[in-house]
Design a protein that fits this description.
With 386 residues, this protein is an alpha/beta fold. It has two domains: 123 residues, no CATH class; 235 residues, Spore Coat Polysaccharide Biosynthesis Protein SpsA, Chain A (Alpha-Beta Complex), CATH 3.90.550. Helices cover 48% and strands 17% of the residues. The chain is built from 13 helices and 13 strands. Strand 1, helix 2 and strand 2 form a beta-alpha-beta unit. Helix 1 runs parallel beside helix 12 and helix 9 crosses helix 13.
Length: 386
């Protein structure tokens, strides 16, 4: 590569890094503002069915389920579902049933797989066991406060609101480095990007960790069958609800995602699936998100530019900006401050996932590999991982 081309490439990387520093400032300010928004008034509180699709025993699964059994809400039920009668989650649900006989806790065991998206297939099997018209679907690794149901169900009483979704902060389920790194990604990458997206395009985001919807809206959009084969089933539900002329609302209550990653490979595959999901939903926006990696762009600029003064100065600015953003978001989310030495390694892993997402269309999901077509649909029923 000629010297002129190297200078141009260095300049492009420096510009991307500086744009990323501007992103860090805005994203941090918006995330802080979001955490200070008030919760909606509870108002009328109709009965709610909580749907919990399960597969395996996530770390802290009992405590996660217990948090839903201890809601400060007048009438609700907990419907848990697995597709394998030998699933280790069964014993956890049965324990909760024994310890909370005052609450209706249903366990649905159904092998039918009527969707290539395994989570949606599980939900399809569980839905007939839900008694109530207000449905709240929450992932198994989420843990919530006692006012969670009141916060996400109240907006559904507005006829213009079709779906309520929730953002979440990451909490490591153990001291394992992979669990800690997974929580860092959620807190310092996913959440600020999601808040920025919601600010720029209100009502366009829908996050599968928690979705509240009425049965009438679900039926009107075609039921779970309408998102049966999409990788981003949450985004597809949001699109379908907006297609009905109803709003998608992001709850101001941030819930907790307890991360139990046990290996670097598992963490990488999990984040690669997220990356491919986002890339399938918004390919150009995902490509533009390269500027959200200012430290790595500045490091590349320094490498290409021969570690001259200007690219090194840009790298220093990017590092300081990243450290400041992480500290501000930790404080806003009520988290223990992330040690500064953990941040560059986390950024390097995130950039590696970003680059890898352009090299494959195969995702790992619950010990199976799935192939994704150019439209974000799951093809095939999943091959067991080697």
């Amino acid at each position: 590569m000629t010297e002129d081309l190297l200078k141009i490439l260095t300049g492009v990387l420096e510009l991307g890094a500086l744009l990323g520093c501007i992103y860090l400032i805005f994203a941090a300010r918006l995330a802080i503002r979001f955490t200070r928004l008030p919760l909606p008034d509870a108002g009328v509180q109709p009965p709610v069915s909580i749907l919990k699709p399960l597969c395996g025993e996530d770390p802290g699964l009992y405590e996660n389920l217990l948090s839903f059994a201890e809601q400060d809400y007048p009438e609700f039920e907990l419907v848990c579902g697995v597709q394998d009668p030998t699933d280790s989650a069964v014993a956890v649900v049965e324990r909760l049933q024994r310890e909370r006989p005052d609450l209706r806790i249903a366990l649905v065991v159904d092998r039918r797989q009527r969707a290539r998206n395994l989570k949606v297939a599980n939900l399809m099997n569980m839905l007939p066991s839900a008694r109530y018209d207000r449905l709240v679907m929450v992932d198994s690794d989420m843990r919530v406060r006692p006012d969670f149901l009141a916060a996400v169900a109240a907006p559904l009483e507005d006829a213009t609101v079709g779906l309520v979704t929730s953002l979440y902060r990451g909490r490591p389920a153990s001291d394992a480095p992979w669990s800690v790194l997974g929580a860092q990604f959620i807190n310092h990458a996913f959440l600020p990007q999601a808040v920025l997206g919601e600010t720029l395009m209100p009502g366009q985001g829908c996050f599968g960790a928690s979705i509240a919807i009425t049965r009438e809206t679900l039926d009107a959009m075609g039921g779970f069958a309408s998102v049966a084969d999409t990788l981003a089933d949450d985004n597809a539900m949001g699109v379908a609800v907006r297609g009905l002329g109803r709003r998608v609302l992001v709850s101001t209550l941030v819930i907790d995602d307890w991360i139990g990653e046990t290996s670097l490979g598992g963490l990488f595959r999990h984040e690669l699936r997220w990356a491919l999901t986002i890339r399938g939903v918004a390919p150009w926006g995902y490509l533009g998100s390269v500027v959200t990696h200012p430290v790595m762009l500045a490091l590349l600029a320094a490498l290409v530019g021969g570690f001259e003064l200007i690219p090194l100065a840009v790298l220093l600015v990017a590092l300081l900006g990243r450290f400041a953003m992480v500290r501000a978001i930790d404080r806003a989310l009520g988290l223990v401050a992330t040690p500064w030495w953990r941040i560059p390694g986390r950024d390097a892993l995130s950039f590696a996932v970003f680059c890898a997402s352009f090299c494959t269309r195969t995702v790992a999901w619950r010990d199976h590999n799935f192939h994704i077509d150019s439209h974000g649909n799951v093809t095939g029923n999943g091959d067991p991982q080697a």
